């Protein structure tokens, strides 16, 4: 083969293969005979090849990969006519939903340039995102409902690396980002599988404590933040590995440092400020400040990307309400690295965060057996979107509020109390 | 962008962009607002990007590209378990069939290594091909029935170039193959669009003459060949540009030098020998010798790839019968180049050829309005496969036989008589 991205030389091939192995064995727990759908940026081809290899070694049925390409994405904005921006590949997403319904696992490789669309017309970006979200809904539901085992891992895309390490030459930036990804993904140790087992046990201990407390709400205070997040009736905390409705225990996110649950869509009050920039489908949104009334965002500002943020909030009614709240200590390895990744998969694991939009049905007691109506009645939100953004820092305190109004310190200055 | 296959440096970027423009404007005649699905080897990314650009410049709705990867294809054979070889992405092909039914155009970039699977177990290759053919059927029917405008162009994949020019270093082989592709695709002239208009007019003149003659059959004689190919009732010759059922006039194959029609599935008698190797899904099949009785292949031999050939013939009943007969003069530019491409899209345009399997409904008078039953009654073949192979050379003569038994010379020593 003569085809190799230049960045390949900067990426340790042994660790890259360990990442592929962890994605298949820990991330997916891919089963004998199970089909796999992979989505990835085309620059991540070296990782996709290794994942494909380890998937077949694990007894995969058929592995099918779909590649996105930044240049081709930009071509629509540079040369496309206006009508193009309301189109989406609904037939492809419908097909994905069908194959997920038949038990196919899903692995996404992350690594797109977080700033790809930052120079493009926000109105067109908003229309394209909305069309894509609507088309993607049936497939996303299989994932957000946790019907199947799924996983996301990351690849050090040169355009992403250039944003994270702007002062370094390309090859150095890629090498640094690769090292950070390998460390955060726990594949830079001798036995990554054992390291993940230990990490999963620690996260399970935190979830267990929170599930025992059964708080009615969490109260966040810090600079620019005074927010009370009501928790859904019958909410359940999760973290680390988790069992999908198909019975397979997987680690959806690699890396992961969070424990998380479902807020009550109607019971969020106060104001909150973001503590890290959010990269949403190629647009950077920074310094978000929003105000909630009755669970709904009634005011939203940002120092950068405010127009795209407001278009996101207008996606549907549920886009203005919360679908997730997650706790991450300020001392998490990703936070300690000091690197701002401009990638939610990493930045959300350096900081407590909340997510706009769709809730996870697994974050309810007996979530797998609840209907959509029951989830809604218990306070679960529904939306075409699910967008995490970071609100934690070393200056944020969190209290758990019990149903009787008494308070329990949960975090102080960003650390478990 | 830091991502560029090494071969890119060997390929003239100006001619590559002309190829992309010809694919969109001549090959597809892509319409304003029409969606486009592209399939391509991942090494062809530079061409796919240019096609995407020109598609959007032509007013495309949404352009969606799917990439295959030779290393990932091989991973199934190297590491996959036995059950994997009966799987196919039916959900993806079903989706493609649906979007084609809604008017989406289809462009395939050819260029896969013709020998990719030659070292693999023929039984597994046969099973994988059969599963894929069955799954692909609904999408292929939209193409073979000419419901939509579609096109194939080629990219000089390094692994293909190495096979065509085995004595040259990689970069030279790619440069030579690129040059041959550009010449055969008529993009090495100042005005490729005008060159294609003239070429299409010449091919139309040949078809017109053959349609006036209304031969009952063609009689091929040459070394190892004495074959009478009955033509279907109400057959119609086509060549060059052609109008799809959606009303769009396109050039499905680039390059193309052939005029072709539908044989009668029950009226082929005698024996025939291939004059060039056939590359079928990664296996090279050489020196094919088959004998027909009543339209059916009753004996098939090959000096190489015989096992795969016989598995192909066992795909279904129609796989043993002909779906196409095509006439190409021995002096065609591709033949004169003297290059053996190991790629049917090129080699079939250097030589008269026949195709096993599915017929084209457009190759009937009023083909667009015929039902499947009518097509069958008139002698049209149906099958999951459509595989062209070469039977023409400078030593082959062809007579046209009229319904009254009289003979008209059609070709002598490989040239129009």
UniProtKB/TrEMBL annotation, chains A, B:
Give the record's keywords alphabetically. Aminopeptidase, Hydrolase, Metal-binding, Metalloprotease, Protease
Question: What is the required cofactor set for this protein?
Answer: Zn(2+); Mg(2+); Co(2+)
What's a Pfam family in this record?
A: Peptidase_M29
Single GO MF annotation: metallopeptidase activity
Q: Does the keyword Protein biosynthesis apply?
A: no
Query: Which domain of life does this protein belong to?
Result: Bacteria
Q: Does the keyword Hydrolase apply?
A: yes
Gene Ontology biological-process annotations: proteolysis
Q: Which family does it belong to?
A: Belongs to the peptidase M29 family.
What is this protein identified as? Peptidase M29 aminopeptidase II
Question: What does the organism's lineage look like at the top?
Answer: Bacteria, Pseudomonadati, Pseudomonadota, Alphaproteobacteria, Hyphomicrobiales
């Amino acid at each position: 083969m003569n085809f190799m991205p230049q960045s390949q030389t900067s990426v340790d091939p042994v660790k890259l293969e360990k990442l592929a192995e962890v994605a298949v064995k820990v991330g997916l727990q891919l089963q004998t005979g199970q089909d796999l759908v992979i989505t990835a940026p085309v620059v991540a081809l070296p990782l996709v090849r290794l994942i494909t290899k380890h998937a077949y070694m694990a007894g995969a049925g058929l592995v099918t990969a779909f590649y996105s390409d930044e240049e081709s994405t930009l071509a629509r904005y540079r040369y496309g006519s206006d009508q193009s921006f309301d189109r989406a590949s609904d037939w492809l997403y419908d097909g994905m939903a069908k194959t997920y319904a038949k038990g196919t696992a899903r692995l996404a490789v992350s690594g797109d340039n977080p700033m790809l669309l930052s120079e493009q017309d926000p109105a067109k970006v908003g229309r394209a995102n909305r069309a894509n979200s609507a088309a993607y809904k049936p497939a996303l539901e299989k994932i957000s409902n946790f019907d199947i085992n799924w996983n996301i891992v990351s690849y050090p895309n040169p355009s992403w690396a250039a944003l994270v390490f702007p002062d370094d030459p390309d090859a150095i930036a890629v090498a640094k980002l690769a090292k950070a990804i390998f460390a955060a993904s726990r594949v830079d140790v001798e036995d990554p599988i054992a390291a993940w087992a230990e990490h999963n046990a620690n996260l399970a201990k935190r979830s267990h404590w929170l599930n025992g407390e059964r708080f009615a709400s969490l109260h966040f205070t810090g600079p620019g933040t005074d927010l009370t997040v009501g928790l859904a009736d019958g909410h359940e905390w999760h973290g680390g590995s988790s069992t999908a409705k198909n019975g397979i225990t997987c680690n959806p996110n690699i890396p992961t440092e969070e424990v998380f649950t479902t807020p009550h869509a109607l019971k969020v009050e106060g104001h909150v400020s973001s503590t890290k920039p959010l990269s949403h489908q190629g647009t950077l949104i920074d310094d978000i400040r929003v105000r909630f009334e009755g669970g709904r965002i009634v005011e939203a500002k940002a120092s950068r990307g405010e127009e795209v943020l407001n278009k996101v909030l207008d996606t549907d009614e549920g886009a203005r309400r919360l679908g997730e709240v997650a706790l991450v200590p300020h001392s998490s390895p990703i936070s300690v690295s000091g690197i701002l990744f401009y990638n939610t998969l990493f930045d959300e694991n350096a900081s407590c965060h909340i997510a706009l939009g769709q809730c996870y049905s697994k974050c309810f007691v007996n979530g797998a057996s609840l209907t959509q109506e029951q989830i809604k009645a218990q306070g679960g939100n529904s939306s075409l979107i699910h967008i995490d953004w970071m609100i934690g820092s070393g200056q944020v305190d969190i209290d758990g509020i019990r149903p009787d109004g008494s308070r329990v310190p949960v975090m102080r200055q960003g650390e478990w109390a």
